[in-house]
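Hey, quick one: can you model this chain's 3D structure?
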Amino acid sequence: MHGLQGARANKDLTVSELSARSGVAPSALRFYESQGLITAARTAGNQRRYQRHVLRRLAFIRAARNVGLTLEEIRAALATLPDGRTPTRADWSRLSAAWRDRLDEQIAALVRLRDGLDACIGCGCLSLDRCALSNPGDVAAASGPGPAYLPRALRAPSPRAPRVPAAGETAREQKPGDGCRACEP
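Sure thing. Here's the predicted structure for all 185 residues.
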């Protein structure tokens, strides 16, 4: 027998076993637990033990994150399940139906982006000829940093978004020609 089969098949999983089986880092498991997305029992030695159904919850969390849901939205979806149980196929169908509009919006935005890749994406660098038409005088800068003309669905921070400056810190502002070869004289 391989891996967790046999004698361990019906036993709770350690952090490292759950991580190996789910592909989720141990630090993420502890974070998800701190956020109330998964639960663990504790041994007499205060080690975490996860029931096997947590594997399905982790798969649910990963799928929901891939759709673009925030952890708060995932927590709210999981809270609709009785007794905090693991989502069933019927639960997944019901919950994911609510995400259909979001996915359709993201797909439409990606299609618009794909179809306009040869045009300005509104980064504010003024590096493409069209920028002078779509962004005269860099008026997009008033919208803040980043690609102001990207569809809204594509501007939302991703789960892997870069670090946002903390209170009191300032983000380095990109100026025309700042690291953009097309802008250099």
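One thing worth noting: The two ends are 67 Å apart (CA to CA).
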